[in-house]
């Protein structure tokens, strides 16, 4: 996630000061919640979970990406609090590059989760072929290479510069309007609109199939992934709206009053919307805790590992459900035990 353009050359003073204060407060709270939360997820999966599924592996990658960016929030709330960049040119480029990397990685991992659930529901007999270690690793490596490539504009355009108050900023240095349009529309389209189109299409197909199914199982992973998807959208949508506003401002004539209005909007709102985007990385541990609350009394600190084991068993349950359907379609009998395997949660 990227706290883009947290300072500006021209801005309404009062609204900007409030925006900086709110943004700093949000980032401090995100740091206190997100760092231990994501570290706990990583520990639960690596040290305590006995069974791991593709979804669990994707959650592990998401927690690693979120945990890394949460550890870096100390730099960003210092930047917002001081309204001055004090960490040097190299860190200016590197930190915002990692932020962009996290943004793309988060949405792509969520998209992969949704596509995996789509395959599990529509073509359960193909899940195990896709879940082979070699295939999963190839997909993840390809995804990370794409993510690191898409985040390159942060390395290219981020520079230190002085504003009118002689404060040193880590800001974009776009030489033309086309660069503004290219960067921010790429972020919004590739980092939000296209993936969400895929995600929503996947869930429409999933819900349609579940409604047609005679064996309606309550699956942990469907509800949990849906919660992750909704949470990501809620906290990232304001950021991408501001991206569009900034692009519109860049494309508007310098002499237009509309340009001045649009500039004031994105410059004053950018710190808060960027800070809100950070919340999505700290919200996932809360979602997992809520989803795994039934395990807390029995398993203590291992409750999240049991939740992920339950997710791992969902794919097996779907396979059993598919086998049951095929047997019934062929007129074969199923034993009571085999029936209960896919009727129960």
From TrEMBL:
GO cellular component, one term: plasma membrane
Localization annotation: Cell membrane
Membrane topology summary: Multi-pass membrane protein
Domain G-protein coupled receptors family 1 profile: 37-288
BP GO annotations: inflammatory response; phospholipase C-activating G protein-coupled receptor signaling pathway; positive regulation of cytosolic calcium ion concentration
Gene3D superfamilies named among the record's database cross-references: Rhodopsin 7-helix transmembrane proteins
Superkingdom to which the source organism belongs: Eukaryota
Protein name in UniProt: Leukotriene B4 receptor 2b
UniProt organism field: Astyanax mexicanus (Blind cave fish)
